[in-house]
Amino acid sequence: MSTETAAEATNSADKDLQDKGYRQPVVEVEGLTRILDGKYAEVRNLVRDNLVDYADILSDAETLSSDAFRERVKEVVVEMAATGQTGMGLPKQYGGGGDIGASIAAFETLGLGDLSVLVKVGVQFGLFGGAILQLGTEAHHDAWMAGIVSGELMGSFAMTETGHGSNVQALKTTARFDPETDEFVIDTPTESARKDYIGNAARHAELAVVFAQLEVAGTSHGVHAFVVPVRVDGRPAPGVRIEDCGPKMGLNGVDNGRFWFDRVRIPRTNLLNRFADVSPEGVYSSPIESANRRFFTMLGTLVQGRVSVGGAAINAAKVAMAIAIRYGDQRRQFEAADPGTEQLLLDYGMHQRRLLPLLARTYAMHFAQEVVAGQLHDVFSGITDNEEARRKLESAAAGTKALGTWHATRTIQECREACGGAGYLSTNRFQALKADTDVFTTFEGDNHVLLQLVAKGLLTDYSGEFEEMDQFGMVRFVAGLAVETVLEKTAVHKLLERIKDVLPGGDEWDQEAGLLDPNYQLAMLRFREEHMLGGVARRIRAGVAGGGNPGNVFSEVQDHVIAAARAHVERLVLEAFVDKTAALPDGDNKVALNLLCDLFALTTIEADRAWFMEHGRLSISRSKAITKEVNALCRKVRPIAVDLVDAFAIPRVVLRSEELLAHEAAGVDG
Question: Angle at the Cα of 650 (from 600 to 323), degrees rounded to 5?
């Protein structure tokens, strides 16, 4: 930020803040970048350098034909593979980096650039490569992994079917074992069983990891994964039919397509057999006796995709924030207090209200994502690989992905509007950001379905039967608990006591001191979460006790289930932010992050103030005090807002937005 602009912003802030002894922090941008980049700063900088080298692809997306752009995206992905940045999570012996945490950091940072490149990287190295790595064994790794890491062997991840998306367990594609030929026969029995929306399918995949119902001697053993050739010398393999999905809302550099299989024969050894196998004699075996547990164990190994998508969405939101806040810090509109000048957009209270809470939430989501990525690394590196750690990871990954992708959608739209008509021009990046991230809310599972997974874990406390339960099983489980057990599990009564300890004065406590106390903020979010969870449990129990069908009972409480899960994840996000700031050494950067943490916490409470008031946690006066404090926090953040987005370290050429940010370069006043 220029000295002149910073001075204007400071002068426009509430004078009462200075009268109360408040000192505006001075952000040390490079230091804040180091905090954000964390232990993988070197990896993130490598990706940033690559984004600069391939920045021209952002304009290629607007000027090339669909076919040409797809080829250009593939070319970039293969060239990036040579730098090592795309295969960081794959084994070292095949040319990868052998570091799951590094692979997540690299993928997240790719989210600052063209998102077709990001998604194609995700399909090739995350979904396709990850499935063979996690579901296959050494023979599969030896056969294919080196080609996957180099990008020479392109593949697809063929799970979703037209008739079955989130309900993977009910997929209809079949894989029947033929003992006479020692082969599996892959077949698409109905039109609704076609594999749909499959990345890399329409043009580039040679192999596909196909999820199908395994049948041996007339007995079904559930969904398993198979490696199926889908192209030979660039043409569809025998028995494989391929169709292009056609133009999409966005991500048109990714060749999404459909597969049909007409009795396609593959060797028995193409079954990815880490968790189950079939002998040449046709004997099925698995170290996991329960079919349901085996299914969820297989899916659990693929959780990296959810973590990756959530992180990429958060980084796309950073791009939108950087553009909108920089624009608001340069663009003037209407006469200011000083005659002869016009006021900067970001000095208007409403503009601050629109953008700065979203900036605070972006930081909050970044630190929550950091926690989840760390959990993923620890589980998949064997540091904390146990049943409880995996269940917690799956829940955290599902919840953070849901909130992160919803946040990106909301943030990009608000930032576009904050840039006026100029934000509607393709060259200013918002078109691509909106179009390319829109599908993230349904990538790797629809967000509402993912939050149901979160709620199931909360309600059952990951009981021993957790993996056996569908949603109806969860209803039966919760209904079978004694009321006292439900209350003890949700611990609402204990939480009420904790809140009283934090706020000893009840509704008449010192508002100004209490609002900015992280103990108060966390207690409020914990109360909401646990009260909602207890309410869901009581509703389920009452519904079943009243003779309700478990399916109908679940449907009737589904909105409460989603609300409880969302409340849980928001509490985890705040905890991550509070823990991060608490661990930092004293200094201006810590002060700045504490401002953002307070802003995130209070806007989260403010957004749900009706619920808190309904449940006796907010008086009218306290609710008004929160709004007043949020406005004051926005004024405090305003002078450092540009520094806060500069700390994202997004290369200027990647931001593009030449017209929007021309004021910045030229010092234009109007």
Answer: 65
Mean pLDDT to the nearest integer, 476-487: 55
What confidence category does residue 513 fall into, taking pLDDT thresholds of 50, 70 and 90?
Answer: very low
Crossing angle of helices 588-607 and 620-637, rounded to 10°: 140
**566/560 Cα distance (integer angstroms):** 10
Between 291 and 89, the higher pLDDT residue: 89
User: β-pairing, 155-158 with 207-216?
Assistant: parallel
Q: Which of 201, 315, 253 is nearest to 57 (CA)?
A: 253
Looking at residue 166, its pLDDT comes to: 76
Of 495, 551, 550, nearest to 524 (Cα)?
495
Q: For the chain, what are the domain ranges?
A: 37-153, 156-291, 477-646
Residues 6+ apart with CB under 8 A from 304: 89, 100, 103, 104, 126, 130, 376, 380
Instruction: Pick one of 1.20.140.10, 3.10.690.10, 1.10.10.60, 3.30.70.1670 as the CATH number of 477-646.
Output: 1.20.140.10
100-110 helix and 349-380 helix, angle to the nearest 10 degrees: 150
Helix (H, G, I), strand (E, B) or coil at 470: coil
CATH architecture, range 156-291? Beta Barrel (2.40)
pLDDT score at 201: 97
Among 202, 265, 277, 217, which residue's Cα sits nearest to residue 238?
265
**CA-CA distances (angstroms) from residue 345 to 326, 384, 415, 434?**
10, 49, 13, 23
Mean pLDDT, rounded, for 145-151: 97
CATH 3.30.70.1340 is held by the domain 37-153: no
Written as one letter, the residue type at 310 is G
Nearest to 287 by CA among 297, 295, 296, 275: 275
The rounded distance, in Å, linking the Cα atoms of 670 and 663 is: 8
The predicted model scores a pTM of: 0.91
Active site residues per annotation: 444
Structure tokens at 96: 């990868």
CA–chain centroid gap for 401, Å, is 3
The position carrying tokens 């806040």 is 325
Instruction: Give the span between the Cα atoms of 310 and 305, in whole angstroms.
Output: 9
Q: In whole angstroms, what separates CA 104 from the centre of its chain?
A: 11
Would the pLDDT of 383 be above 60? yes
Q: Per-residue pLDDT for 191 more than 50?
A: yes
DSSP classification of residue 283: -
Instruction: Give Cα separations from 337 to 47, 106, 343, 348 (angstroms).
Output: 44, 46, 8, 12
* Lowest-confidence region among 95-109, 410-424, 617-631, 650-664: 650-664
Mean per-residue pLDDT over the chain, rounded? 88
Cα separation, 102 vs 80, in Å, equals 15
Q: Which residue has the higher pLDDT, 539 or 86?
A: 86
Q: What does the pLDDT read at residue 473?
A: 65
